[in-house]
């Protein structure tokens, strides 16, 4: 973290033996990975069609991944809600099928810290289900319990476009969105936050508008996560978090998981095609560390949902990130915090609050 390299246009050096060894020794969690839909039943195959499959995770020394049931925003009406709920439950079923042993690879679906740690100790990769877009619960917070019952550990409040819960950072006039529909969280959104707290579901503020994010921080009894977001000061995208949002995250104990989406990492340079690498990614980690501290930042790829860097193309190449973190002067405990320690702390906090309040039936 000593130097922020301004010019990283050159080739990424091969990771050192030290970086390789450290990467293999760490618990490494990627907090946001999409699955193909419709499902092709290929999670246990090393296929060119996916940036993340279980063989690539194993090859790349990855310990755990949050796999999301992503529901595209559509019309906020009864028909749209019914379709979204059904698709989300079907996608969670597919994510739950990503376990067992095939092709020399073993994985286990895990939905608690204890289960994730046990899988890690056993040398088994952990698949952690999650839901991207609160639209999937429609207007019925009771559906959140069904997501939790299928192992989900976070729900992203919105995607692009407002839903019944909240305003998104990016509105969709084609779906009838005004710049703001609710002024942040709706009454239903606040009810959903309470349910999520009681169920042990983290509130994910990636994609949410600034007002939604700040209101969610205040409303939630558990620190919130941005499961795949970057820093607005470094790249002025409406989906990124500005300094006021980072400060609110710090005050509440939350975490921003920087993500491998070039459009969120680097401003466009004229007409040149946009490309970014792990050095750009680590610039965002450096910024968050300097502003709010090591314990508030982590790592996500958004692989198979649009994420990819020149030198982090798929789940086999996470070592390049570890190598860059070492080059910047981070030590083992700091790198471990980025690669999953901070995110696991939030999962534990969500579980503690859920136990105190009791699960909604
Ligand atoms: Zn997303």
Rg value: 19 Å
Task: Give the averaged pLDDT, no decimals.
Answer: 95
Largest sheet, if any? 7 strands, mixed
* Number of DSSP-assigned strands: 10
Shape: globular
Helix amount, in percent? 25-40%
* Strand-residue proportion: 5-15%
- The helix tally amounts to 12
Helix and strand pattern: HEHEHEEHEHEHEHEHEHHEHH
- Uncertain spans: 1-9
Provide a descriptive summary of the structure in words.
There is one protein chain. The protein is globular and about 55 Å long. It starts with 16 loop residues before the first helix and ends with a helix. The longest helix has 26 residues, at 332-357. Strand 3 and strand 4 form a beta hairpin. Strands 1, 2, 3, 4, 5, 6 and 7 form a 7-stranded mixed β-sheet that branches. The chain has a 3-stranded parallel β-sheet with strand order 8-9-10. It contains 12 helices and 10 strands. Helix content is 38%, strand content 12%. With 361 residues, the chain is α/β, with parallel strands linked by helices. The structure holds zinc ion (ZN). Zinc ion binds at residues 132, 206-207, 228, 305. Residues 132, 206-207, 228, 305 line the site of zinc ion (ZN).
Protein topology:
Elements: H1 17-25, E1 29-34, H2 54-59, E2 64-70, H3 78-96, E3 100-102, E4 105-109, H4 113-121, E5 125-132, H5 143-149, E6 154-156, H6 187-199, E7 202-204, H7 210-219, E8 225-226, H8 243-252, E9 255-258, H9 262-265, H10 278-292, E10 297-299, H11 319-327, H12 332-357
Parallel strand pairs: 1-2, 2-5, 4-5, 5-6, 6-7, 8-9, 9-10
Antiparallel strand pairs: 3-4
The structure holds zinc ion (ZN).
Zinc ion binds at residues 132, 206-207, 228, 305.
